[in-house]
């Protein structure tokens, strides 16, 4: 019994263990609360930014709806001009970057719906099962001929209106056609002539969240490598994986800006300036994906306790700064020379890190620095072949047989994946 009592920790010792556990829990809770607070501020900031982005579209839609109602009611004598404002708002709000196409689809869908509604009402009359049959026929017919989703929806909706309102409203078909023309036409008029948005401003606002997200998470990854903080690197990876909304907004803004510069005479002089952004969308998307691979391998590096040469975090920081410079120089309409220089500096630092010795995951991080830098160079307007050549020059001859002296005299390294470029 005495021996058993001796093996039990003293009350003071047990209290000390509990206090140590409390300290660990307190630190974890504080970290979680700080993270949630940061996410809350970021979410509010993102929502305000989304409102800022949508403000121009909201004003355009309001103006188009008002003009469509005035034209249909006062000029064309429609006593209940409901469909014209709906057509105008639908053309603007649901089809950024494809408004001309959507206007045509709107009119085609209305035509199909009117035709099917009138034909089936003539032969079958009106009622619940007739309504169901008309809607089914409209969807099947438009789908069979390969129509878009917009045409299918318009055909079905118009068929519903014809079947339900025709018994109480005479001559509904012609006003529905006219309203479709009026609404779609006024939406294009507002977009092209009355209130054309500045396409570069729209793109700059849309590009900021995507590019800032990429730069910020690369910075977090670099600091995580310095501190060997696996949880920080994992959070950066998780946040970067949530980039679909930012990229979709960016891509949609590019399409909308191209449409505006095509339709609006006041924006024709912006066409050449939009070329940079239009060509940059795909390489920026690739840079996002390759950066995700980079950060994922950084997490593995920390987990496996691989060596982290001092230049490696610096290389990732230079990548982040290259992304920021690319956004700033695009927004200013300047040639992105500084962004290119910073990308190549990232590759040079990656080469130094490779010379100092890396493990398997470290070699993949080096490879992804090279690949991401190449993507950013292409986004800046350099051809892919030239970008690859510049990356190889900045990195050096480490990937060639019989590399530099540092590699020849260094101690053997763990098996490494070949750098990509």
Automatic annotation (TrEMBL):
Its main location: membrane. Residues 233-260 form a coiled coil. It is a multi-pass membrane protein. It comes from Micromonospora humidisoli. The keyword Membrane applies. Residues 394-421 are annotated as: Disordered. This is Aromatic acid exporter family protein. Residues 67-190 form the Integral membrane bound transporter domain.
């Amino acid at each position: 019994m005495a021996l058993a009592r001796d093996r039990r920790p003293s009350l003071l010792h047990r209290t000390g263990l509990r206090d140590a556990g409390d300290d660990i829990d307190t630190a974890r809770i504080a970290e979680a609360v700080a993270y949630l607070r940061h996410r809350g501020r970021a979410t509010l900031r993102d929502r305000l930014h989304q409102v800022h982005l949508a403000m121009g579209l909201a004003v355009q839609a309001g103006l188009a709806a008002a003009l469509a109602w005035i034209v249909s009611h006062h000029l064309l004598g429609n006593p209940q001009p409901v469909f014209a404002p709906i057509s105008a708002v639908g053309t603007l709000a649901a089809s950024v970057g494809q408004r001309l196409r959507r206007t045509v689809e709107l009119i085609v869908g209305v035509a199909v719906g009117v035709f099917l509604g009138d034909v089936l009402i003539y032969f079958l009359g009106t009622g619940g099962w007739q309504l169901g049959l008309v809607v089914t026929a409209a969807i099947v017919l438009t789908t069979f001929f390969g129509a878009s989703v917009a045409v299918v929806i318009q055909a079905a909706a118009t068929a519903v209106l014809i079947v339900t309102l025709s018994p109480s409203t005479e001559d509904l078909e012609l006003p529905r056609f006219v309203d479709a023309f009026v609404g779609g036409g006024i939406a294009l008029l507002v977009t092209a002539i009355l209130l054309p948005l500045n396409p570069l401003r729209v793109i700059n606002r849309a590009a900021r969240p995507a590019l800032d997200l990429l730069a910020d998470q690369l910075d977090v990854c670099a600091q995580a490598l310095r501190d060997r903080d696996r949880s920080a690197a994992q959070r950066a990876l998780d946040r970067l994986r949530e980039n679909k909304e930012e990229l979709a907004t960016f891509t949609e803004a590019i399409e909308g800006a191209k449409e505006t510069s095509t339709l609006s005479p006041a924006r024709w002089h912006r066409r050449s300036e939009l070329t940079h952004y239009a060509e940059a969308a795909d390489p920026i998307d690739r840079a996002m994906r390759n950066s995700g691979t980079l950060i994922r391998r950084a997490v593995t590096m920390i987990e496996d306790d691989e060596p982290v040469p001092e230049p490696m975090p610096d290389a990732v920081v230079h990548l982040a700064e290259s992304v920021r410079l690319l956004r700033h120089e695009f927004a200013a309409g300047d040639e992105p020379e500084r962004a290119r220089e910073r990308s190549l500096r990232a590759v040079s630092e990656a080469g130094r890190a490779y010379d100092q010795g890396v493990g398997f995951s470290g070699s993949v991080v080096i490879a992804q620095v090279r690949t991401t830098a190449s993507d950013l160079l292409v986004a800046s307007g350099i051809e892919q072949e030239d970008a690859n050549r510049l990356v190889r020059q900045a990195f050096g001859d480490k990937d060639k047989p019989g590399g530099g002296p540092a590699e020849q005299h260094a101690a053997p390294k763990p098996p490494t994946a070949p750098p990509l470029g």
